[in-house]
Every structure is written in C-alpha cells, then in structure tokens.
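I have been asked to look over a protein record a colleague put together. Thanks in advance; the entry in question is below.
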Amino acid sequence: MPAMCASARAYSSSANLGPGFDVLAVAHTSYYDEVTACYDEKKNQGVEVVKVVGPFAEGSGGAASAQRAAEELLSRLGFGGRVELSVYKGVPPGRGLGSSGASAAATVAALSSILGQRITRSELVYVAGLGETVAAGTPHFDNVAASLLGGFVLVTTIGNRLVAKQVRPSKPLFFAILVPSRAPRKQKTRFMRSVIPRSVEVSLAARNFGGKTALMVLALLEGDLELVGELMMSDEIIERARSRYVDCYWAVREAALSVGAPGVSLSGAGPSMIALAWSETRASMIARAMLDAYRECGGDAETRIATLAPGALELVKSTG
C-alpha cells in the first residue's frame, strides 16, 4: 500500500488580546504555514522533515515544532510507521504571531486526517501544543488552538484536561496588524515571560483575568466592538509589564486610536501589534497610521489587513 498523504494550512494567530493571557487568541488571515504529511505504515523510521520552503524557511529552526507534533500524535495514538513532512513556512517567527504553533497545528490537522482515529479537537490542541514546546520552550495552547480551530478561541484546563472552544462573533471583524521588520531578540518569548510579575493581588487578578476576559467573550458574542476594543486596552498586568520593552508601543497605539480603531494591543508577546477595525477600509486607514507612526519613531515594519481565519482542521486536503 503506497504512502498516504494530506496537506493542511494553518493561519497566524494573536494571543492574549489584552487581558486574556494564555486563554484567549484569534486566528487571522495575515500569514499562513502549510504542511504536507505522508504516512507509510510499513516503514518504521519515525518522523522526518524532508523539506522546508517559504519566505521564513531559514528562520524556522528546521520546522522542529512540526516534527515534534507528529511524534506526539503518533505516540498518543499508538502508531508506528514513517512520517515525512514538507513544510511551507509563511508565518514570520519571533513576532508574536504564533509561528511555531501554526506549523504544529497544520501538521496535526494533516496527519490526524490520515490516521483516521477518533480524537477530540481539544486533544488535538493539546498534542499540537506539546509539539510547539521544542521551539517556544513551553506550550502555548492558545496560539495552537486558534490556528487549529480558527477564529477566536478560549482554552483552559479542568483538572488534567485541556479544553479548547471557539467563540463565534456575531459581527464581521477586521484587523490591522503591524509587524516589525527587525529580527527579534534571542529567546524573545522567554524574556517576555520573565518580565511578568510573579505575584499580584487576588482582587487585581480576578478583575483582570476573570472579569475582563469573560466580558470580552460576551462582547464578541453580542457584536459590541466598542467594548471589545476597550477591553483590549484594559490589561493591568501582562501588557503593562511588556509594553516598556516594545519599540514605539505608545506611538503606534495612539496613531491607531486617532483614526478610529476601537482597540489596540500587543499580539502575543509582541513586538507585533494588532488593532481592531469596523471594516476593511477602516483597517487600511489604521494600518497606514500605525506604519507611519512606527517609521517616525525610527523603526521599519510591514502591515497586514486581516479577517478571521478558518482553522487547519477545516483546510485539510488529501494529496495521495
């Protein structure tokens, strides 16, 4: 029996969005990775990345998160055999856009479709998150959940079980995303986690992580984009600590607000920034204002106009 192959596309993502640290994220159409997985049950040689191409192939670390995700899935399902992965790397690494998570999500989506085993979406998110640890140091289940499931997602643990759910906004959403061109500092994610306060008052944590995140989900469901935007800028713990290490943060934020963005926040740990918009036209205006402000501040960047992206599980194609 010849090897069975499938391909999947996973889009970039932005996590946290203000107060939703490690639990809230959104997949958007700014960038994407694509993985083709081929499985041969008669061979017993593990998982190999045979090809990495695309604009960010050089900085992908050999697509290690894709390889690890495949290994984790085979182990969890009890499969032997050989898996060969071909990776198109289109999500820029180190910019806070879920680059390694996208590779892991696309791999899990493609390979799970071949293996045909019953496994829940939350379990697939867990496997993809474990795959991402090889690149990010720790699993970021919010990023991989968004890329795997699509749109807005919430993730949390109940006991030892990870639960990932989609949040479906009642109105169309657009985003303006500023992506700095300069290569990020080494170990950027680890550093940005190190600057987070180790302890906070219980009342502050409840208000920030509990009340505001819950209210943002409700605002998305009700289509209250003004409130969503306000909440994106309401974080009192994580973004407050990280913003001082992001070049031109305040200049970009104020520029976006000055032309009508309902809200702006860091994308994940940054340095990219994401702004909410009512329409594609407004998103273009906001993106231009953000880019002008960043350049006036002395940096260079590109901008992307994006909408909610479908998940990798929706974008699987059999190729052999």
